[in-house]
Every structure is written in C-alpha cells, then in structure tokens.
Amino acid sequence: MKWRLVVFLLVAFWPQSASAHSSVLILQPFTSEPQVLALFALGLFIQQGLPETEGVFHCFWACCIAGSAVAALNLIRFEPAEQFTLIALITGIIIAAGRKLPISLSLILGAACGGLSGYNSWPDHGSTGDLILSAMSAILGSSLIVILVSSITAEINRLLELIWFSVAVRVIGSWIAAISLLLSALLYRKLV
Amino acid sequence: MGTVGLRSASTAIILVMLAQAAEAHVGPGAGSGFWSGILHPITGWDHVVAMVAVGLWGAFLERPAIWILPVLFPLVMALGGAMGVMGVPLPHVETGIALSAVVLGLMVATAARLPLTWASLVVGVFAVFHGHAHGTELPASANPFAFALGFVVATGCLHILGILFGSLTRWKLGKFAVQTSGAVIALAGMAFLTGWL
Questions:
Q1: What's the pLDDT tens digit per position in A113-123?
Q2: Closest Cα in chain A, distance from residue B175 (Å)
Q3: d(CA A45, CA A174)
Q4: Cα(B176)–Cα(B188) distance, rounded to whole angstroms?
Q5: Is residue A10 in some structural domain?
Q6: How many independent structural domains does chain B possess?
Q7: Where in the sequence is the domain holding B31, given as residue range(s)?
Q8: What is the C-alpha to C-alpha distance for residues A64 and A41, in angstroms, rounded to an integer?
Q9: Would residue A6 count as lying in a domain?
Q10: What is the Cα–Cα distance from B175 to B186, expressed in whole angstroms?
Q11: Is B12 on the interface with A (CB under 8 A)?
Q12: Are B145 and A33 inside 8 Å of each other by CB?
C-alpha cells in the first residue's frame, strides 16, 4: 500500500502549485461530518482486514466515479448525510466486533461508501469544467482519507507490532459507532 | 507497567490536563463544541468515578473483559444518548448514575469476578443512564457533532485511565490500592445517591 500512498500524496498536492483554488477543493469531504466519519471508518475497516480487503479500496474508488456520474446526470436527488451515518455505524460495529466480513459484503460496504462519496462530490452549480474539476478534487480528497487512515494504521501496526494495537482499533471502532448513533438521532430530529 | 504502558499513562494524564486547561475557554452556559463535549463527562464527578470504575473492574476481570467493557460501554452509552436526543424519557437518570458508582465501586472493592455476560450486562445497564444524561444536553449545543465526538473520546480516555491504574493489580500493594479506590468510588456513589455530594 506504500506506493499508493506516495502516488496519492503527489497527486493531491500537485494542483497546489498550479492553482490555489483547486487544491482547496480536496478538503470538500471535510465539510460533511457524517462523510468524514464514514470514510475514516472504512479506512480502519480496510486496515483491519488486510490483505483480503485491499480490493475494497478499488471498489470504493470505482464507485466514487459512478456516484459522481449519477449526480452529474441528475438521476436522483437526495442529501446523503443519513446514509453516511448508517455506513459509519455499521462499519464501526463491524470493527468493534473484530469479525471479518465475507469479501462480497466488504466490497458492498466499500461500494456504498464510494458511491455516496462520489455523489456528494458533484457540486450543484458551475461551468462544466469547474464541476468536473471540483468533483475530481473532492473524490481525491475522499480517497486520500481512506488510504491515509488504512495505510498509516497498517504501517504503525507493522512497525511497532504492538499486541494491543488490534484492541485499540476495535475501541476506536466502538467510538465511531457511538458517535454515528448519536449523529443518527440528531439527524432524525433534524438538529444537524 | 513497561515503557509503553508508562508512555500511555503520561499521554492519558496530559490529555486530561489539557482538557482542564481548556475549561477557561468555555464559559458557563456555552454548551457547544468539542471541548464542551470533552468537559461534560470530566467535570461531573458522578460520571468520572463510574467511568474510571469500568476500567478498574475490567483490569480485575482481565482478558477479554479488560477491553470488551470499554468497547461495550460507548456503544450502549450512545444508545442511551440517542434516547436522550430523541426525547425518550428515562426515569431516575441521576439515581441510576449514582447507583452505577456504588455498584461498580463495590465490584472493584470486592474484586468481584462475574462471568463476562453478567459483567457486560451490569456495565451496559448503567451506560444507558450515563448516555441519556449526555444525550439530553446534546440538542442544546451549537455543534452537536463536535459535542458528541468530545464526550465519546473523553469517556474512552477515562476508561483508559481506569485500565492503566487497574494494571497495578498485578502487584500486591497495587491490588490493595485499586480495591481501596473501588471502596472510595462506592462511598462517593453513596454520597451522590443521598445528595450529600
């Protein structure tokens, strides 16, 4: 996963030298708290199941593009906050339980998160060029969160070989699930 | 406790102290943001002693309880929190919180070794009361997400503090110190229950 991290970092920071506006768009996922939570959870989930879960990231990325295409074609219109929260809740519980999902279900999880991230990356207004650039930057930002979380945690685990590391990941999984559950209740009452 | 344990202990202490320093930035009634969420469980002694007791008891019960209880607690607490947010009434919340300190303190003081299922049930039931108390204050905060994040993290840090302190049980004197702390927690719980504190 190390080479992929290097490539992503390069691609992520390349636009900074070309245009100050385009690099800021990478931060778009951070404007949606449920999305960040879901992406963070997916990153941990991928790390927990490595190497079997490596395909989940590919699935996530492909579905990001598909999700963006759905938004671009205006096929459906909805605010995906509740869906992101649900994904974060499910993923958090799976991480906390420490159980490995069948690979098909893992791919579905990655696809759902990717599809929603891609959909949420497509802006409402702008010229075609701006829309595509914004969506691509936002997808890059989302992918960066997933790959950074999974790579960094995997690397820490590999380098330090701490016996309690897997326990720490499960504890963080329970925290993610807890925050998602509260966020779901707040969304239900339309307080967020 | 090895070097890693010592490092974790100092990190936890620094985190707790950092939160205390941040109190200056949160004025009375400013129920918003991450720091308010962090401060909510830390500034209420009834919450603090119960959370630490969960960690201490987990250390006494050893693996897998030492990590299952801190994983279970936030999940069930969030369930109680969601009930609070949605306005589902829960009678005698404050009594439940005070009782949690009494029961969990007694479990630590007597070094009770309940089966994992029963221990989880005891911790889970009390977690609902703690969560409900936090949840009812969530809607009033300006940034509920940051508040939720803050108090879940603070709760987890208090558990870790309890586990670290509880790891002293491997020594005879440490075991005595931990059991004494359990007794103090139970007494504090009694004081909360009777309204003396």
A1: 999 998 988 88
A2: 22
A3: 12
A4: 18
A5: no
A6: 1
A7: 3-194
A8: 16
A9: no
A10: 17
A11: no
A12: yes
User: To probe the interface with A, which of B1, B34, B85, B120 has the most A CB atoms within 10 Å?
Assistant: B85
- Residue from the list A93, A175, A191 with its beta carbon closest to the beta carbon of B139: A191
Q: What is the ipTM of this complex?
A: 0.72
Residue A52 backbone phi and psi in degrees, to 5: -60, -35
Please answer yes or no on whether A184 and B82 come within 8 Å at the CB atom.
yes
The number of distinct structural domains making up chain A is 1
For residue A172, give its domain range: 41-188
CB contact under 8 A, A189 and B81: no
Q: Would A4 be classed as within a structural domain? A: no
Give the separation between CA A64 and CA A140, rounded to whole angstroms.
9
- What pLDDT digit, counting tens, does each position of B158-197 carry? 888 888 887 787 788 888 888 888 888 888 888 888 877 6
3-state DSSP assignment of residue B112: coil
Written as six digits, the tokens of B14 are 């620094």
pLDDT digits (tens, 9 = 90+) for B18-56: 444 333 333 344 345 777 778 777 777 888 888 888 888
Test B156 with A170 for CB contact under 8 angstroms: no
Structure tokens at A140: 């890059």
Q: Is residue A11 part of a domain?
A: no
Which residue in B has a C-alpha nearest to residue A189's C-alpha? B86
Chain B residues 34-93 with CB within 8 Å of chain A: 67, 70-72, 74-75, 77-79, 81-83, 85-87
